[in-house]
Amino acid sequence: MHKDLSQIEGFEISFHEKSKRIINIKIEDQIIERLIFPFKKFDINALEYKPFTRFTIAKSLNDIASGKLNIFFNSILRNRNIGCFIIGPKNVSSKIDKTFLVKLSTSITYLIGNPNHDSMAGKFYARFYVKHEDDSDSYLRKAYTNMDLHTDGTYVKEKTDWLLMSKLEEKNVEGGETALLHLDDWEHLNDLFNDEVGRQNFIWGSPKSKNVDYKVEHPVFSEDKDGNPQISYIDQFPEPKNMEQGLFLQRLSDSLEESKNKIIIPLPVGNAIIANNYFWLHGRKPFKENKNLSRELLRIRGSFFNN
Ligand SMILES: [Fe+2]
């Protein structure tokens, strides 16, 4: 795999310093330069209103990357031992503004699969701020609370094979690092995966701000076609039916949070994390208190083109 990595001209590709399970991709200036023109062809409104334009800019990105980026991204995300990459410009410049980053994230995802409609934002992506003050109804925007390890899409009907989290802006931020855990690195996997309760159907709801007016039912653990464990879990949204389910979720939550194998990453502005949503869990450490703290994020979740 590593040999393949270094062969895309204009991209610096390596294993992440914190984990061999994460590929780090730095986009060199020459590629950024060549993206400016095709990205200018459509404004954000066009991307939102005309889905086919997203394929057009994704094709531009792929063409500029020797036509190899789509295969490369997919091979990373489908590789059980890896399943995650971080991508961003090698050098920060004034050309890389938020609009550019929205287009870059859009292009990346359209080489992987179709994004789900994000009900919170009413679009194929969601942009949101984390600030000092918050009156929302979930941990997403609560700066000073740990956001526990979880997967996305637990309470929606759509398949959520992968997710992208991109950092658009950050001011006065200390802490708030991304926490990641690969299921196979989790010390308690066998214990919990083999517990019969984890295979029972749980009910999953969501608070008002998510704009999802139904509930779904599914187990916490399942298996992929090769028998590998998969998880679909978030602490806030399952509605345990009985004591047995309640205590199982408590044990699951505790043993995820106490894992020593979490990877803590300070994601630089302009970078995006893309991860397989079946065997990577993600979360966020609390921020250090600061009245002027501000972080803007973009997220896109979706399914693979070829399942
Ligand atoms: Fe999430």
| Strand residues, percent | 25-35%
Given helix and strand content, the structural type is alpha+beta
Tell me the helix content: 25-40%
Cα shape: globular
* Structure ligands: fe (ii) ion
Main sheet characteristics? 8 strands, mixed
| Radius of gyration over all CA atoms, rounded | 19 Å
Oligomer: single chain
**Average pLDDT over all residues:** 95
Give me the number of helical elements.
8
Number of strands: 17
The H-and-E topology, N to C, reads as: HEEHHHHEHEEEEEHEEEEEHEEEE
Distance between the termini: 22 Å
* Poorly predicted regions: none
Description:
This protein has 307 residues and is of the alpha+beta class. Strands 1, 2, 3, 4, 5, 7, 15 and 17 form an eight-stranded mixed β-sheet that branches. Helix 2 packs antiparallel against helix 4 and helix 4 crosses helix 6. The protein is globular, with a radius of gyration of 19 Å. It starts with a helix and ends with a strand.
What layout of secondary structure does this protein have?
Blueprint: H1 2-5, E1 11-16, E2 19-27, H2 29-40, H3 44-49, H4 51-64, H5 69-78, E3 84-89, H6 98-109, E4 113-115, E5 126-131, E6 147-150, E7 162-171, E8 178-182, H7 189-193, E9 202-204, E10 216-218, E11 221-223, E12 229-231, E13 238-239, H8 243-257, E14 263-265, E15 272-276, E16 280-284, E17 294-304
Parallel strand pairs: 2-3
Antiparallel strand pairs: 1-2, 3-15, 4-17, 5-17, 6-16, 7-15, 7-17, 8-14, 8-16, 9-10, 9-13, 11-12
Helix pairs in contact: 2-4, 4-6
The structure holds fe (ii) ion (FE2).
